[in-house]
Amino acid sequence: MNAKTLRTKVFADLKAAGFRPATSLPMPEVDRSLRPPADIASRLMALDALFTWVAFPEKAAASERVRNYIKRNRLRKWPTEEEADIVAMDRAAAHDAHVDTIGWRLENMWPLAWALGFDPEPTIEASQIDETITRAIFNEFLPGLDGTVAQMVEKSEPRSAGDVIALEYRFYCAHNAVRSAQLGGNTVPEKFHPIIHGGAVHERRHSLTWCISPDNLWDDTDLST
Protein backbone atom coordinates (compact mmCIF):
# COMPACT_ATOMS: atom_id res chain seq x y z
CA MET A 1 0.00 0.00 0.00
CA ASN A 2 1.43 3.38 -0.94
CA ALA A 3 1.67 6.24 1.56
CA LYS A 4 -1.27 8.26 0.22
CA THR A 5 -3.61 5.27 0.14
CA LEU A 6 -2.61 4.23 3.66
CA ARG A 7 -3.09 7.73 5.04
CA THR A 8 -6.52 8.04 3.44
CA LYS A 9 -7.61 4.67 4.81
CA VAL A 10 -6.31 5.32 8.33
CA PHE A 11 -7.94 8.75 8.58
CA ALA A 12 -11.25 7.36 7.32
CA ASP A 13 -11.15 4.45 9.76
CA LEU A 14 -10.25 6.70 12.69
CA LYS A 15 -13.00 9.17 11.83
CA ALA A 16 -15.53 6.35 11.75
CA ALA A 17 -14.29 5.21 15.19
CA GLY A 18 -14.57 8.73 16.64
CA PHE A 19 -10.89 9.74 16.62
CA ARG A 20 -9.89 13.10 15.14
CA PRO A 21 -6.13 13.35 14.63
CA ALA A 22 -4.58 16.52 13.27
CA THR A 23 -4.85 16.73 9.50
CA SER A 24 -1.30 18.15 9.44
CA LEU A 25 0.25 14.82 10.43
CA PRO A 26 2.89 13.64 7.93
CA MET A 27 2.51 10.82 5.47
CA PRO A 28 3.46 7.34 6.69
CA GLU A 29 7.00 6.18 5.92
CA VAL A 30 6.15 3.03 4.01
CA ASP A 31 9.77 2.08 3.31
CA ARG A 32 10.77 1.51 6.95
CA SER A 33 12.44 -1.76 7.94
CA LEU A 34 11.19 -4.31 10.43
CA ARG A 35 13.41 -5.62 13.21
CA PRO A 36 14.53 -9.24 12.91
CA PRO A 37 12.04 -11.70 14.45
CA ALA A 38 14.67 -12.82 16.99
CA ASP A 39 14.92 -9.26 18.33
CA ILE A 40 11.15 -8.93 18.67
CA ALA A 41 10.92 -12.36 20.30
CA SER A 42 13.72 -11.47 22.73
CA ARG A 43 12.03 -8.26 23.82
CA LEU A 44 8.70 -10.08 24.19
CA MET A 45 10.30 -12.80 26.30
CA ALA A 46 12.17 -10.27 28.43
CA LEU A 47 8.82 -8.66 29.23
CA ASP A 48 7.43 -12.13 29.95
CA ALA A 49 10.20 -12.64 32.53
CA LEU A 50 9.61 -9.19 34.03
CA PHE A 51 5.86 -9.65 34.32
CA THR A 52 6.27 -13.14 35.77
CA TRP A 53 8.82 -11.89 38.31
CA VAL A 54 6.48 -9.18 39.59
CA ALA A 55 2.95 -10.46 39.12
CA PHE A 56 2.93 -14.22 39.62
CA PRO A 57 3.29 -15.88 43.04
CA GLU A 58 6.37 -17.90 43.83
CA LYS A 59 4.55 -21.23 43.64
CA ALA A 60 3.39 -20.46 40.08
CA ALA A 61 6.86 -19.72 38.73
CA ALA A 62 9.89 -20.51 40.87
CA SER A 63 12.44 -17.70 40.97
CA GLU A 64 15.33 -19.89 39.83
CA ARG A 65 13.31 -20.97 36.80
CA VAL A 66 12.75 -17.34 35.82
CA ARG A 67 16.45 -16.57 36.28
CA ASN A 68 17.39 -19.56 34.10
CA TYR A 69 14.92 -18.39 31.45
CA ILE A 70 16.65 -15.01 31.37
CA LYS A 71 20.17 -16.50 31.32
CA ARG A 72 19.43 -19.22 28.74
CA ASN A 73 18.00 -16.71 26.29
CA ARG A 74 20.43 -13.87 26.97
CA LEU A 75 17.52 -11.63 27.82
CA ARG A 76 19.49 -9.20 29.99
CA LYS A 77 20.27 -6.99 26.99
CA TRP A 78 16.58 -6.42 26.23
CA PRO A 79 15.04 -4.81 29.34
CA THR A 80 15.34 -1.10 30.00
CA GLU A 81 17.51 -0.02 32.91
CA GLU A 82 14.41 0.44 35.06
CA GLU A 83 13.09 -3.02 34.14
CA ALA A 84 16.47 -4.64 34.88
CA ASP A 85 16.49 -3.01 38.31
CA ILE A 86 13.05 -4.49 39.04
CA VAL A 87 14.15 -8.03 38.13
CA ALA A 88 17.25 -7.55 40.30
CA MET A 89 15.03 -6.81 43.32
CA ASP A 90 13.96 -9.35 45.88
CA ARG A 91 10.85 -10.87 44.37
CA ALA A 92 8.49 -10.02 47.21
CA ALA A 93 9.76 -6.44 47.22
CA ALA A 94 9.34 -6.21 43.44
CA HIS A 95 5.77 -7.44 43.78
CA ASP A 96 4.92 -4.94 46.51
CA ALA A 97 6.49 -2.01 44.66
CA HIS A 98 5.36 -2.70 41.10
CA VAL A 99 2.36 -5.05 40.97
CA ASP A 100 -0.05 -2.12 40.56
CA THR A 101 1.70 -0.85 37.41
CA ILE A 102 3.22 -3.97 35.82
CA GLY A 103 0.02 -4.57 33.85
CA TRP A 104 1.02 -1.83 31.42
CA ARG A 105 3.76 -4.17 30.16
CA LEU A 106 1.00 -6.44 28.86
CA GLU A 107 0.00 -3.62 26.51
CA ASN A 108 3.57 -3.70 25.15
CA MET A 109 3.53 -7.48 24.83
CA TRP A 110 0.39 -7.71 22.71
CA PRO A 111 1.75 -5.83 19.64
CA LEU A 112 5.10 -7.63 19.90
CA ALA A 113 3.31 -10.97 19.87
CA TRP A 114 1.09 -9.77 17.01
CA ALA A 115 4.16 -8.78 14.96
CA LEU A 116 5.32 -12.39 15.32
CA GLY A 117 1.98 -13.78 14.12
CA PHE A 118 -0.29 -13.76 17.17
CA ASP A 119 -3.99 -12.99 16.70
CA PRO A 120 -6.05 -10.90 17.33
CA GLU A 121 -4.69 -7.57 16.15
CA PRO A 122 -4.19 -4.87 18.81
CA THR A 123 -7.00 -2.32 18.80
CA ILE A 124 -7.28 1.38 19.56
CA GLU A 125 -10.92 1.31 20.63
CA ALA A 126 -10.71 -1.03 23.63
CA SER A 127 -9.60 -0.30 27.15
CA GLN A 128 -6.75 -2.26 28.72
CA ILE A 129 -5.93 -5.72 27.36
CA ASP A 130 -8.59 -8.38 27.86
CA GLU A 131 -7.77 -11.33 30.11
CA THR A 132 -8.54 -13.84 27.35
CA ILE A 133 -5.84 -12.25 25.17
CA THR A 134 -3.36 -12.24 28.05
CA ARG A 135 -3.98 -15.92 28.74
CA ALA A 136 -3.54 -16.78 25.06
CA ILE A 137 -0.21 -14.95 24.88
CA PHE A 138 1.18 -16.64 28.00
CA ASN A 139 -0.35 -20.09 27.67
CA GLU A 140 -0.47 -20.62 23.91
CA PHE A 141 1.94 -18.27 22.14
CA LEU A 142 5.00 -17.82 24.35
CA PRO A 143 7.32 -20.87 24.64
CA GLY A 144 7.11 -21.00 28.45
CA LEU A 145 9.85 -20.53 31.03
CA ASP A 146 11.70 -23.63 29.80
CA GLY A 147 11.63 -22.41 26.19
CA THR A 148 14.08 -20.54 24.00
CA VAL A 149 14.12 -17.60 21.62
CA ALA A 150 14.89 -20.05 18.80
CA GLN A 151 11.70 -21.97 19.60
CA MET A 152 9.73 -18.73 19.70
CA VAL A 153 11.04 -17.68 16.30
CA GLU A 154 10.50 -21.14 14.80
CA LYS A 155 6.82 -21.21 15.76
CA SER A 156 6.23 -17.60 14.67
CA GLU A 157 4.79 -16.40 11.40
CA PRO A 158 6.09 -12.81 11.39
CA ARG A 159 3.97 -10.10 9.83
CA SER A 160 5.31 -8.27 6.82
CA ALA A 161 6.95 -4.89 7.28
CA GLY A 162 4.01 -3.38 5.36
CA ASP A 163 1.48 -4.84 7.81
CA VAL A 164 3.37 -3.53 10.84
CA ILE A 165 3.89 -0.10 9.24
CA ALA A 166 0.17 0.16 8.48
CA LEU A 167 -0.89 -0.70 12.04
CA GLU A 168 1.80 1.54 13.53
CA TYR A 169 0.54 4.48 11.47
CA ARG A 170 -2.99 3.84 12.71
CA PHE A 171 -1.73 3.95 16.30
CA TYR A 172 0.47 6.96 15.58
CA CYS A 173 -2.51 8.95 14.34
CA ALA A 174 -4.75 7.72 17.18
CA HIS A 175 -2.00 8.65 19.65
CA ASN A 176 -2.07 12.19 18.26
CA ALA A 177 -5.82 12.37 18.92
CA VAL A 178 -5.28 10.99 22.44
CA ARG A 179 -2.67 13.61 23.29
CA SER A 180 -4.93 16.36 22.02
CA ALA A 181 -7.74 14.98 24.22
CA GLN A 182 -5.40 14.92 27.22
CA LEU A 183 -4.92 18.65 26.65
CA GLY A 184 -8.67 19.22 26.59
CA GLY A 185 -9.51 18.69 22.93
CA ASN A 186 -12.63 16.92 21.69
CA THR A 187 -10.65 14.44 19.61
CA VAL A 188 -11.56 10.95 20.90
CA PRO A 189 -14.82 8.96 21.11
CA GLU A 190 -17.29 10.01 23.80
CA LYS A 191 -16.65 7.09 26.17
CA PHE A 192 -12.90 6.91 25.52
CA HIS A 193 -10.92 7.95 28.62
CA PRO A 194 -7.90 10.01 27.49
CA ILE A 195 -5.70 8.73 30.35
CA ILE A 196 -6.79 5.13 30.97
CA HIS A 197 -7.70 4.13 27.42
CA GLY A 198 -5.14 6.56 26.04
CA GLY A 199 -2.43 4.87 28.08
CA ALA A 200 -3.16 1.59 26.31
CA VAL A 201 -2.85 3.31 22.92
CA HIS A 202 0.46 4.84 24.02
CA GLU A 203 1.96 1.52 25.16
CA ARG A 204 0.76 -0.46 22.14
CA ARG A 205 2.07 2.26 19.84
CA HIS A 206 5.44 2.15 21.63
CA SER A 207 5.91 -1.51 20.68
CA LEU A 208 4.84 -1.04 17.09
CA THR A 209 7.08 2.00 16.57
CA TRP A 210 10.00 0.14 18.16
CA CYS A 211 9.45 -2.76 15.77
CA ILE A 212 9.99 -0.47 12.77
CA SER A 213 12.85 1.49 14.39
CA PRO A 214 15.61 -1.14 14.24
CA ASP A 215 18.41 1.26 15.14
CA ASN A 216 16.79 2.55 18.35
CA LEU A 217 16.79 1.25 21.89
CA TRP A 218 13.39 0.87 23.58
CA ASP A 219 13.78 4.04 25.63
CA ASP A 220 14.97 5.95 22.56
CA THR A 221 11.87 5.12 20.49
CA ASP A 222 10.42 8.30 18.99
CA LEU A 223 6.87 8.57 20.33
CA SER A 224 6.28 12.14 19.25
CA THR A 225 3.00 12.94 17.50
Can you put this structure into words, describing what you see?
With 225 residues, the protein is mainly alpha-helical. It folds into two domains: 3-33 and 160-219; 37-155, no CATH class. 57% of the residues lie in helices and 0% in strands. It has helices at residues 3-17, 37-55, 63-72, 81-88, 91-98, 104-115, 131-141, 149-155, 161-182, 196-211. Helix 9 runs antiparallel to helix 10 (196-211). The radius of gyration is 18 Å and the shape is globular. The model has no long low-confidence stretch (mean pLDDT 95).
List the helices and strands and how they pair.
Layout: H1 3-17, H2 37-55, H3 63-72, H4 81-88, H5 91-98, H6 104-115, H7 131-141, H8 149-155, H9 161-182, H10 196-211
Helix pairs in contact: 1-9, 2-3, 2-4, 2-6, 2-8, 6-7, 6-10, 9-10
Give the overall shape, derived from the CA principal axes. Answer: globular
C-alpha-based Rg, rounded: 18 Å
| Helix-strand sequence | HHHHHHHHHH
Number of domains: 2
Spans of at least 5 consecutive residues whose pLDDT stays below 50 are none
Secondary structure: number of strands: 0
Q: Averaging pLDDT over every residue, what do you get?
A: 95
Biggest beta sheet summary: none
Approximately what portion of the residues adopt beta-strand conformation? under 5%
Helix count equals 10
Distance between the termini: 22 Å
Structural class: mainly alpha
Helix content: 55-70%
